[in-house]
UniProtKB/TrEMBL annotation:
Pfam families: HTH_1, LysR_substrate. Residues 9-66 form the HTH lysR-type domain. The keyword rRNA processing does not apply. Keywords: DNA-binding, Transcription, Transcription regulation. InterPro entries: LysR-type_TF, LysR_HTH_N, LysR_subst-bd, WH-like_DNA-bd_sf, WH_DNA-bd_sf, YidZ_PBP2. The keyword Transcription regulation applies. This is Transcriptional regulator, LysR family. The lineage of its organism: Bacteria, Pseudomonadati, Pseudomonadota, Gammaproteobacteria, Oceanospirillales. PROSITE patterns: HTH_LYSR. SUPFAM superfamilies: Periplasmic binding protein-like II (SSF53850), Winged helix' DNA-binding domain (SSF46785). GO terms for molecular function: DNA binding; DNA-binding transcription factor activity.
Length: 311
């Protein structure tokens, strides 16, 4: 028997074979397939060539199967059902999912965004897992390795090719200081007080100068950075127990001040550029139904923040 390669077989023949097995009648098979009876007969002839077996024999009612067809029928049915599933649109059912979703963000994102995100995540997908990984400037270039589903961060430059981005919300920088800080005058943070105070600076990645320092440089001023830390939460904790000032995003400052009654939020005494929070993900996830659901939840969390904080 000559070896037959799958590439040489029209897969439509296998579907016709399955219908013939189920109908055991060429006329009924043709009606179900919406083709002519001679077309089904020609397909049966080709199937006999492929399998080197009669496959069916005629009887008074139509067709009866050969031993070879009886052997192949269960495998053929299982295979055709699998192919049907393969070509169907993917469906994501949150309440049944056990998928692990990996979010990359800063500790600021974990403090500010994560509680609201987790509430919606757990309510809709109680069996899924949310894993949070730390973010730095190099993370965006690593998004192609499939270890991160999505990141929420402030981008200093356009994401590389293959990485999608969506603006979520604009924010501004403000200053955190403890109540009674001697550099605050009558409840107002002046430029003189800001420059006289020692500062805590959160250093993310390899960035050496921040927007607030560039703004001060344009005005001919420079602040004193006394402490640098890699995360927002410990930096805010330092300010809570010292006379240092911390310049941070307004979204973080307001949320942290809510859980730290001895901290106050002050507008900066000079103009600094606003910035955007972005949601970024790799192109491979663009049409993934589960990923679309995850992106929608994060987008809705920031829509809620817009309602709460935007003027």
């Amino acid at each position: 028997m000559t070896e037959v390669k799958l590439s040489d077989v029209d897969l439509n023949l296998l579907y016709i074979y399955l219908v013939l097995i189920e109908e055991k009648n060429v006329t009924k098979a043709a009606s179900r397939l919406k083709v002519s009876q001679p077309a089904v007969s020609r397909s049966l002839s080709r199937l006999r060539e492929v399998f080197d077996d009669p496959l069916f024999v005629r009887n008074s009612h139509g067709l009866s199967t050969t031993a070879r067809t009886d052997q192949l029928a269960p495998q053929l049915k299982e295979m055709m059902e699998a192919l049907e599933t393969l070509i169907q649109p993917s469906e994501f059912i949150p309440e049944q999912s056990t998928r692990r979703f990996v979010l990359s963000t800063t500790d600021f994102g974990s403090l500010t965004v994560l509680p609201k995100l987790l509430e919606a995540f757990r309510a809709q997908a109680p069996h899924a897992v949310l894993e949070v990984k730390s973010w730095d400037e190099s993370t965006v270039s690593d998004m192609g390795n499939a270890e991160i589903d999505l990141a929420v961060a402030v981008l200093s430059k356009e994401p590389p090719a293959g990485v999608k981005g969506m603006r979520l919300k604009s924010d501004t920088m403000v200053c955190l200081a403890r109540k009674g800080n001697p550099h605050i005058t009558n409840g107002i943070l002046t430029l003189e007080g800001y420059l006289a105070a020692p500062h805590v600076q959160v250093v993310l990645g390899r960035r050496h100068q921040y927007a607030v320092d560039r703004a001060l440089t344009k005005l001919g001023h420079k602040r004193e950075v006394a402490v640098t830390l890699p995360n927002f939460v410990p930096a805010a904790a330092v300010v809570r127990n010292s006379d240092l000032l911390l310049t941070v995003p307004k979204l973080f400052a307001q949320d942290f001040a809510e859980i730290s009654p001895n901290l106050e939020v002050y507008d900066l005494p000079f103009e600094a550029k606003s910035f955007d929070y972005s949601m970024i993900w790799h192109d491979r996830y663009q049409h993934d139904e589960a990923h679309k659901w995850f992106r929608k939840i994060i987008y809705e969390v920031f829509e809620e923040y817009k309602h709460l904080y935007d003027d």
